[in-house]
Amino acid sequence: MSLSSKPNDETRDVPHHEPSTEVYAVHGADPEVLAYGMAKYSRSALSMRESLAELNEQKAEKFLNTFYFQYGHRSIADLAHLALAIERLSILAATIAVDEPRWDGQERSTRYQDFQKSGYFVPDFAQDASARALYRETVDVLFAEYRHFSEEMFRYLRERTPKPVEMKPDAYERTLRARAFDISRYLLPLATNTSLGQIVSARTLETQVSRLLSDTHAEVRRLGELLKQAARDASYNVSHASARELVQGIQRECPAIAERAGEFLLRDVRVAPTLMKYAEPSSYEIDARRDLTAAAAELLAGLSIGPAPLVDLLDNDPLEVELATTLLYQYSHHAYRQIREVVEALPESQRREVIDLGLRHRGRHDEVSRAYCAGQQFRFDILMDIGGFRDMHRHRRCVQIVQGYTAAHGYDMPPEIDSAGLTDRYDSVMERARDVVAQLAARDAAGAEEQSQYIIPLAFRKRTLFKMDLSEAIYISELRTGAAGHFSYRNVAYAMYEAVAQRYPALAKYFRVTDVREPVDLLKR
Fold first, then answer.
1. I need a surface site. Which of 214, 315, 456, 462 has the fewest CB within 10 A?
2. 3-class SS at 197?
3. Which residues lie closer than 8 Å to 509 by C-beta, 6 or more apart?
């Protein structure tokens, strides 16, 4: 068939028009109103200007109650994006809050900020005054050691890293202090206060709030309540002071107009009062967690946690084996390979029973849990320090199955601490923290295990299963092996590359990694 064939009679008379595409930015509409205005394209011929004018004259809540809640059009909530600040929460709660695949935000950096004066979270010990005292004493010690190691490591690095002539003194000191904080952060406990900002869709926020409200930690459940309330309360208006001055100026010149101007410019904006009204704890998540926790305890009873490499590139599994193993993995502290051996030895009917536990309580509107995101070619079981995990945790284009915090895997020590002659002091602090974690966890009190987790320093290791495609494996390996990065995740990313290169030698040339064995210039950022 010729591509230059002449038009037939049916197309000869079709009129041709000049392009009439119009593009314009929209500003000033409340997030909910803007979301519905965009959603109306699917069911209305009105322009965006006409839709927003119509919604401003009527109640957006009426439309949302009809089309969002009654018809389940959750895609509308994808169009409402909300900026929220979350300040003074523990690092433990922050890692749980950001564990959302569609999350965008930033947290306070342990590299560029000094956490000496951050303060820390104290869980409710009810009537156990001795436990509370032991907790506070231990965290105070960790903060004191954090201060000590911050100064000691800065001095150590300064002695061994001369300032280049062309480098300004303040830039030199700032760069070395950042490197020192990279090391001393290992002393910070999970109780340490941090802050984060997030820009998420209303749909992601609804999912996040539901998940937080279902968590086992009281602080995290409280955070879910606060996020839900923040979406419904009046938001902070950055332009409020300027708008007030403008209204006051109008008042002096034209009082009649000033009142209407004030109603418009100084009105309260609630970012998602309707879209968030039904965010509640997820019974699906709570019930599935209960059943799978019990199943993991039963099937893995008596199985000690075995040694494991930093990074383990897993073999391909039959889908049912992968699903059952992953479901048990998230409620244990064992390596994936250990659990898989147990699962493979089970009768097929018992494997399917485990898979069923993760879906048995799923409601009509519940998304299938993350453990069922299965079948990726590249699956890495990674055991790394908590501080480094927080950096790796930011990667959203992969599936992460995160195990809980524990002191059972031991801790890492930055090599500079040994070189500086501080090994004994460092080990003493870590062992003291581990002993207190065990003491508090052993107490016969509700939430004792969760309370003890807050004392765990960032040096201790945790296990996470990362599932991804080749593109993401290349991206993480290239980005995280960069010389300016933290040595912890640099080692993890390079081990990921080496594992892929060993299994698929022909693919190795496509990874543009930095060899972590080469010396690093500490003054390069």
1. 315
2. strand
3. none
Looking at the DSSP bridge assignments, the partners of residue 201 are 81
Give the neighbor-by-neighbor strand order of the sheet with 81-90.
81-90, 193-201, 105-107
Among the listed residues 268, 343, 363, the one whose alpha carbon sits nearest the alpha carbon of residue 303: 343
Q: What is the pLDDT of residue 265?
A: 63
Assess contact for 366 and 282: CB atoms under 8 A: yes
| Residue 478 to residues 463, 474, 494, Cα–Cα distance (Å) | 22, 6, 8
Query: Hey, what amino acid is at 397?
Result: R
pLDDT of residue 187: 98
The answer to whether the CB of 72 falls within 8 A of the CB of 83 is no
Q: Is pLDDT of 176 > 60?
A: yes
Token representation of residue 183: 């090391």
SS3 76: helix
Confidence (pLDDT) at 1: 44
pLDDT over threshold 90, residue 430: yes
State whether residue 81 is helix, strand or coil.
strand
9 vs 2: CA distance, rounded Å: 17
200 φ, ψ (degrees, to nearest 5) = -135, 160
pLDDT of residue 182: 93
User: What does the pLDDT average to over 404-420?
Assistant: 96
As given in the structure block, the two tokens for residue 405 are: 């915090």
3-state secondary structure 355-401: HHHCCCCCCCCCCCCHHHCCCCCEEEEEEEEHHHHHHHCCCCCCEEE
Cβ neighbour number for residue 181 with a 10 Å cutoff: 22
Query: Which domains, and CATH codes, for the chain?
Result: 21-79 (no CATH), 82-234+412-453 (3.30.1360), 283-411+459-510 (3.30.1360)
